Amino acid sequence: MKLTRLVGMALCVALLAGCASGPVRRVSEPSARIQQLTVRADGSWSTDLRIENFSSIAMRFDRIDLALTVAGQDAGRLSAQPALSIGKESADVVTVTLAPNAAAKLAVADALAAGRGVDYTLKGTVAATPDNTRQRSFKIDRNSALSPAPGLPGVLR
């Protein structure tokens, strides 16, 4: 009887000790991708950049500096200082305007005219501050593709 009580009390103490540590605070590498690219009337591009926070805590995204390559052509840099807070395991969108290089502009115009998609690459860094601690820099290296959006001329998604 005493042994059963002793084992029961030990289990209760172990369970309570396990609760004392609190939730796990995990900082994971964020991700960035182009959600939408719109060719504007003046030839510039409006890019909706989707920033994804995979961490278990909120992060404030302070700086974005990404080299964009479209259809194998250097398009330019997507640079912004959004000061955007994104909650844990969540995402948000930042719109960045870009005056693309001529070769990339022609590659996107050709793809839109032909109704086909284009591959793109984002390489660079995103600076973020996890939950009011020190700022960290995260490397981004993403390869993906964009396709024409039906019914939306000049838009790739």
Automatic annotation (TrEMBL):
Keywords: Signal. InterPro entries: LEA_2. The keyword 4Fe-4S does not apply. Residues 49-135 form the Late embryogenesis abundant protein LEA-2 subgroup domain. Residues 1-22 form the signal peptide. The keyword Transmembrane helix does not apply. It holds the Pfam family LEA_2. This is Late embryogenesis abundant protein LEA-2 subgroup domain-containing protein. It comes from Lysobacter daejeonensis GH1-9.
